[in-house]
Hints:
The strands form 5 sheets. An 8-stranded mixed β-barrel has the order 19-20-22-23-24-25-26-27, surrounded by 4 helices. Strands 8-7-6-11-10-9 form a 6-stranded antiparallel beta sheet. A 5-stranded antiparallel beta sheet has the order 2-1-5-4-3, with helices on both faces. Helix 1 (4-44) packs parallel to helix 7 (171-241) and helix 13 (480-487) packs across helix 14 (489-504). By secondary structure, it is of the alpha+beta class. The chain is flat.
Amino acid sequence: MEDPATLLRKLERNNKRLKFLLKKYKQNNHLHHALILLSERASTVAELTLLYPAIHDILVQYLPSRSFYVVLQNQYTQALELSYFVDEKDGIAVPLNEKSHFSEGVTGYVFRTGRTVYLTKETMLEQTKNGVFKALGSQAEHWVGVPIYRDNKIIGVMVSQSYQAQQSYSEQQIELLEVMSLYLATAIERVKKRELLESEVKIRTRALMQSNEALNKEIEHRKRALERQQILFKISELATQFNNIDDVYKQVHHIIRSITFADNLYIALYDKHAGWLSFPYSVDEVTQYKPRPFAKGYSELVIRTEQSQLIDTERAKALIADGTVERAKDYSKIQLATSWMGAPLKTANGVIGLIACQAYDHKYEFDYDDVELISFVSNQIASVLQTHLANQALKTSHQELEHRVAEKTKALQQTNLHLQMQIEERKKIEQQLYHDAHHDPLTSLPNRSLFLTQLEKTLHKYQRHPEHHFAVLFIDLDKFKTINDELGHQAGDQFLIWVSKAFSDCIRDHDLLARLAGDEFVILLDHLSDKQQAEDVAKRIIRVMQQPFCMKGTCVQSGASIGITYSNKRYNNIDEIIRDADAAMYYAKNAGRGRYEFYHPLLTAGTGSNKHIEHHHLGALPTHFRRTEVISMADKPSNISLLDAFGEHPVLGSTSFDILKKFAAERAEQLEIELQLIQQVIQIGNTQSQDLLFCCSLSVLDHQAFLPLCQLLKSAKHQLCLLFDENELRHASSQQLENLKSLSSMGELIGLNDFAKDRCDLALLTQFDFRYVLLSSTFSKRVLQQQSYDLQLQGILAVTKLKRTQVIAKGPAILNFRGLLENHGLKLFFGKQHTIGHEPELSSRKLQGINQETLSF
C-alpha cells in the first residue's frame, strides 16, 4: 500500500495533466468554432468590405482585438495597402497620411520576415532604438502581427493590438490568429471571386435589360403592326361579308372602337355637286346629325384640307378667332366637344366624306397617336364604302328596273296564262296518245313498237361502244292456253297482269320489259359485263313462274321458256336479234320447257344457203386441240395443262366440241365422239410427258360406255384427269355416280369443272375424291366483289385442303386479277393457250384399242 504522500503526488500529476488536456480541448474548440464562423462569413458576405468586419467580430470573442487591421500587398505597385482598420486611439487618417507607413513600421517587418511577431511596449521601443523598424502611431501595450500566405507566398499581414497592459496575448490566442490568417487568404479569394462574379452578373444583367428593352420595343412595334394588319383584315371582310350598307357602318364603328375612344362617332358623306353633307351613320350622346349645306365646321375643315384634324378647346378658339371655323347662332345652347378628331375618306376620285370621333366634358383627350390610327383606318375604309355605295346605287337602279319589268311581266303573264293552260291540256292529250300508241293497254308495259325503237338505239350504241354489252330475253309462257280454257279469258288477262308485275321485279330499273303479243314477252338488258348477268335474270324469271297462279279457288301451274341472245358484232339490224332470240326460245320449249337457252348459230344453220350441209354428223369433222397451261402467280408452270377439243365446222368455223356435242344427231353419236376425243387426248399425253385435264360429259359413265372408257385409260402412260361439270353431276343417275366412284377407286384421276357457278355445294366436294376443282370464272369475279362469296371460298379451300384437292381459278389472264385472288388464298390459275396441230378426220369406226362389240349401242 502506497503512502499518502505518494498518492498525493500522483493525484497532483493527474490533475495537472487533466487541466492541460481541458485547456487544449477548449483551445481546439475555440479554434474549430472560429473557423466555422469564418467559413460561414466567407460563404455569405458579398464583398471584402463586409468580410473584414465579420472576421473582426469573430476575433473579439476569443482575444483582445478591439484594435485590428489588415494590410495586403498591391499586386501591381507591390506596396502594402490598408484593407481594414479599426483602432481605439488612432483614426484611419493616421496610417493613410503617412508615406510608406506600413513598409517601414513593424507591419512591414512582419511582411519581410514572414514570421509571426508578438511585442510588448518595452520590446517594441527597444527594437525601435536598435533600428529594426520605425515606431509609427500610438504605442500599444501588446502587439501581434501574423503573416497572410497564399500558395506559400506572403500577400499581407493581419494585426491585433491592445492598449491595456493587463490584456496580453496567450500562446493559444496567437495560435488562433495564425490559423485564422491561414484561412483568411482562401476566404479573401472566395469573396473576390464572388465579387467578380456578381460584377459580371450585373454587367450581363444590364446588357440583358438593354436587350430586353430593345426587344420589348420591337415586340411593341410588331404588335402595333399586327393590330393594324388585323384591322386591315377586318376592313377587307367588310367588302365581302356584308351586303347591307348599314351593317358596314356598324362594323366600321366596331373597328374604330377597338383602337380608340369612339363612344361618339359619325360618318359624313360629301356631295360635291349638290354642296351638301349627309350623315348616314351617327352615334352621339349629345348631338343628332341631320343633312346640311357645306359650311365652315370641323367636318368641312377636314374635307377642304383633305387632312386629318385634331381639335381641342384651345385650337377650337384659335380656329374661330381667325375665321377658319364659324359657329351657328345658337351654338351657345349646344354642348360642345372638348376633344375632336376627324379623318378624310379619300378615294381615287377624291374625298367622299370623313369619319369623326369626339368626347365631351374631358372624358377623353385624343392625341396624335389616335389621329394616326384613325387616318390609317380611314384610308382603307374609304374604298370599301365607295364600293358598297356604288353597289347600293346599282342595286337601287336594278330594283327600279325590276319593278318596271315586273309590271310589264305581270301584264304578259295574265295574257299568257290562258294560252299556257291550253298548251298544257294539249300536252297531256299528246302524252296520253303517245303512251297509248307505245304501251300495251292490258299490262301497261311497252309494246312492240317502243321495244323495237329502244332495241335499235341500244344496237347503235353497242356498235359505237363495243364494251357496252346487252342481251335480249324472248319469253313464251307455258300452258297459257290451258289457263284461258280452264279459267276463262278474264282470268287469262289477270294472269298476264300478274306475270308483267312479277317480271318487272326480276329486272333492274333501267332494263326494259315489253309485251309483244299474246303470251310473248321480251326483256332488253343493257350495260352488261358478261353473259352470267343475263342468265341470272332468266333463272329468277323461271323461279317466279314455278309459283302456281290461283283464281276463284282454282290454281294452275304455268312456266316460261326463255331464249337469250347476247350482243355480237355480227348483228347489223334488230330483226336478226329478234329472230335468234325466238329460235333459242323454241329450242328451250322443245327441250322440255321451263328452262332457258342461249342462241347458238347451229339453231339457224340449216335455214340459209348452207342448208344442204349435214352439220349434225360431227364424227367427220377435222379436229384440233388447244392446251391451256396451269401456272402459279409467278407464271411458273405446274406441269399440268387443260386440253379443249375444237372441230372445224363448215358453218361455224373452229368451234368447241362442248358446244357441238349438244347438237349431235343422236346420243350414240355423241358418246362415240366423246370416246374418240379421250383417245386423242391420251395419245397427246403419251407424247408430251404431261399431266392433262380434259372435260367430258357424264355420258362416258353410262353402262355401255364405261368399259371402253376404262380400256382407254389403261393405255395412258401419264395420268389423265377427266373433268365433269358440276351442274351435270347434280342430275346424274345412280349408275353414273357409282361408275364415277369406281374410276376413283381404280386410281384414275377425276376432277370437277365449273364449280360454284350457280351455288356452292361443299357436300359434293366431300362425296368424291376429286384431284382437281376448277372454279367458275363467275365465282372468281364475285369473290372480289362480295364478302359472302369470299366466305364460301374459304370453305372450299378448307375442304379441298383436307381432301388434298388442288383448286384452279378461271378468269381473265390479268396479273392484277390473279394477285387479288391470291390474297384470298388461291394459288393456281390458267395461263397461256397454245394450239396443238390439226388432226386428220376422226372416223367413227377407227377407234384404236377399243372392243368394237362394246360400241354397239
